[in-house]
Design brief:
InterPro entries: HotDog_dom_sf, PAAI_dom, Thioestr_dom
Keywords: Hydrolase
Strand order of the largest sheet: 1-2-6-7-8-5
Strand content: 35-45%
Pfam families: 4HBT
CATH class: Alpha Beta
Domain Thioesterase: 47-119
Radius of gyration: 14 Å
Number of helices: 2
Oligomer: single chain
CATH architecture: Roll
GO molecular function: acyl-CoA hydrolase activity
Length: 138
Amino acid sequence: MMVTFEELQSFLAEQFPQGARYGTLQELGDGWAEMKLEVAEEHLRPGGTVSGPAMMALADVALYAALLGKIGLVPLAVTSNLNINFLRKPVAHSPIRARASMLRVGKTSGVGEVYILSDGLEDPVAHATITYAIPAQR
């Protein structure tokens, strides 16, 4: 692992402070990360379910953490593709969690997947595949 949990937490707070709205880092490993979002009213859409954008943001930031845990603190690694499938309705006022893992990390890109889970449900509520563009070394 290139980055410790504490280093990544500090980096995210300094370089991506708005990311805290999308969840907090819970665990970090070599190419994987877990994040948690405490669902608030701002994350709900009409009908009392967690909004798609809230789940997408959580998935994106979780995989960003997993990638940086693998390659180091590379601020300009950016999302180049995100595909998400919403599988079932999350529990409206329960936290959601993202389990992100890198499937492949190359010199210029990284591909991973994220399962979104809702506290109170056994099965995932969403599944995302995400590709990140990694800037060339200078």
